[in-house]
Every structure is written in C-alpha cells, then in structure tokens.
Amino acid sequence: MPQYQRREVQDWLNLFEQQKQSGLTAVEFCRQQQINGVRPVIPTFNS
To answer: CA 33 → CA 5, 36, 47, distances in Å?
Structure first.
C-alpha cells in the first residue's frame, strides 16, 4: 500500500509560497521536499 501524506488546501498554498520564495523550480523544490508527482486534488467551488 502506498505511503502518502494527505495535505489540506492551506498546506498546498503554503507549499506553493515556500517554493516561490525558495527560487527553485517546482521540480527542484518537490524533489528537495520529497513531494512526489501525484497531483493534488484542487477543490472547485460551484456557485
């Protein structure tokens, strides 16, 4: 069974900001943080 960490929306937003501040590409940042290539589920907000 695969091991993964479930992240909430705010966790992803924080990671995006950290990546931006790091100056690394997204790929480099993810490798450094050991974040794999599984895409997060982005919630949609329907009116």
So the answer is: 12, 9, 35
